[in-house]
């Protein structure tokens, strides 16, 4: 019998354990000396863990008892032939309205390791999120020594204000959103924030044992450095795909990404801090300039020092530290689902830019130089439709989207020059998608630009993982830079951090038919339009076609 998880939501959603049916309500949570209602799943923040074995199928019954529309996305789950349960609002489904229900099917295929689930409507994922653990097949093992225990480490952000008020305000004014008031580890700000010390997350460890940290960046708008004082971390998986062991004293993790890392309790018994703080490459962007902490406590009889030491994290704008970290991660070829594509049939180069729209009469315009902030891919600022693109595609309904997303930037210029003409800042609006033939081998090059300002962008593709084959600073040169690709052991991931004023290249095989969202995982950029949709057409075989929709799809 397939595992059944219940996801009852009240102010957004709630995930419960196997064969349980729990009502979920908006829950009051106290952080930073004040209390506010937040959306939760089964009253928990962060939400409950979904556990499965490699290749299993899990059903999650979502019941929205909240006051907002909601959708849920299973981040990194490929969902073969089943885009109906993928979750992004108005891309693969219309939202689950208050009082509504939807039974979502999670079909695990090639994933093994740590993923996560989160709301994919408005900014509700700030509190509606939780882990997914996919274990090796029964009677098989990890490609590393089995750890003594596993530990969830969810990195996030906390606002004193209600998150929907934050979203509504910056979209109304055309400016940027208010930054968060705290970073968090497992929902707690930690010892360095007011009114927080008593609830700081504590990890108790036994000397000599090994712990698998399942690290998730669930933050809305910040890339993070993470470290454990006086301990190394050995990265063994990224985005639920195994990697060659990489031992470092810190990791860098972007929103949407997950890391499995081994921590060996091999230091003198004491208390130690694990900590995270922002990596921000932009010289003008404001961010929460503080450190979230949790405590690592060794068991045993000893007298601890009065105050744990903080780990030495890279400086907040240390681009080289982030760049080198991601360039050091190597995949594990013996665990690849297929070989790295070398004969590419579909080439896509897309700019990813921050933009502005001119101020129209009657608008509030708090963007740069009295404009309204926007973002784009290949100069198209995506306009989310009011009905589902997947349903329109499946039912041959016209007028919901256009098939005009360009394979190359429409304007060629020095993308990373310090000074660029102001007229390049204005994108076009559109609901433009890219249609890809089933079985194509695809290369996508994400080219950052310096329009408005350069910044790193975590780009996430639904419906598949991909090989991260290359990155560089400056403008991509197809003749020179392809020679630097790692086609031997690249990591197989679902979210890639494109470096500031640089580029990143990915390759994959388009063998999952359906409608799949591609977007920046910085929530403000997603809200401004830095996204598109890849439609992978059906193949010829019976098992190469999108499955029919479930009978309880939420109505539009």
Characterize the structure shown.
This protein is mainly beta. It has three domains: 141 residues, Immunoglobulin-like (Sandwich), CATH 2.60.40; 188 residues, Sandwich (Immunoglobulin-like), CATH 2.60.40.420; 200 residues, Cupredoxins -  blue copper proteins (Immunoglobulin-like, Sandwich). Helix content is 7%, strand content 36%. It has a six-stranded mixed sheet with strand order 11-10-13-18-15-16, with no helix packed on it. It has a six-stranded mixed sheet with strand order 22-21-26-31-28-29. Helix 3 links the parallel strand 23 and strand 24. It is globular, with a radius of gyration of 22 Å. 53% of the residues are buried. The N terminus is likely disordered.
Strand arrangement in the largest pleated sheet: 11-10-13-18-15-16
Low confidence ranges: 1-24
Structural class: mainly beta
CATH architecture of the largest domain: Sandwich
Summarize this, please?
With 556 residues, this protein is mainly beta.
